[in-house]
């Protein structure tokens, strides 16, 4: 093992990697953590806004998309600023990035959101 990144206060449930320069992680602690190498991987920003555990995280269109049991999709910039928050029909179980869209599962539905 090369290194362990430690900062979340509860179980890490999802992680995404972007062009060797950003890691984003989501957790049962209800936060998104942004990690950057400077020069070694370290915590850059803690993004707060979800009210339940974060189930999935992806990079899409220069944003970080996080889906949560709180029935929201949140879009963050790489500096950790919340750009958009979308209410869904149920818990967000999966995210798929597609150019300028995020496709997600929410309850019994599949929904598509613009980024």
Written account of the structure:
This protein is mainly β and 115 residues long. Strands 1-2-3-4 form a four-stranded antiparallel sheet, with no helix packed on it. It has one domain (12-114): Lipocalin (Beta Barrel). The mean pLDDT is 94. The radius of gyration is 13 Å and the shape is globular. The chain contains no helices and eleven strands. It is 0% helix and 62% strand. A hairpin with a 3-residue loop joins strand 1 and strand 2 (22-27). It starts with 11 loop residues before the first strand and ends with a strand.
Which CATH architecture is right?
Beta Barrel
Order of helices and strands: EEEEEEEEEEE
Strand content: over 45%
The level-1 CATH class = Mainly Beta
Short précis:
This protein has 115 residues and is mainly beta.
Entry keywords:
four-stranded antiparallel β-sheet; 11 strands; 0% helix; 115 residues; Lipocalin
Helices and strands, with pairings:
Elements: E1 12-18, E2 22-27, E3 31-37, E4 41-48, E5 54-60, E6 63-68, E7 72-76, E8 82-87, E9 92-98, E10 101-106, E11 109-114
Antiparallel strand pairs: 1-2, 2-3, 3-4, 5-6, 6-7, 7-8, 9-10, 10-11
């Amino acid at each position: 093992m090369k290194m362990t990144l430690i900062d979340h206060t509860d179980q890490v449930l999802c992680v995404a990697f972007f062009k060797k320069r950003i890691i984003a992680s989501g957790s049962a602690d209800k936060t998104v953590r942004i990690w950057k190498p400077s020069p070694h991987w370290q915590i850059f920003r803690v993004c707060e806004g979800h009210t339940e555990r974060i189930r999935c995280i992806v990079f899409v269109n220069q944003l970080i998309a996080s889906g949560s049991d709180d029935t929201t999709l949140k879009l963050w910039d790489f500096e950790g600023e919340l750009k958009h928050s979308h209410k869904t029909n149920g818990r967000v179980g999966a995210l798929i990035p597609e150019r300028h869209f995020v496709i997600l599962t929410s309850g019994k539905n599949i929904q598509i959101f613009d980024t």
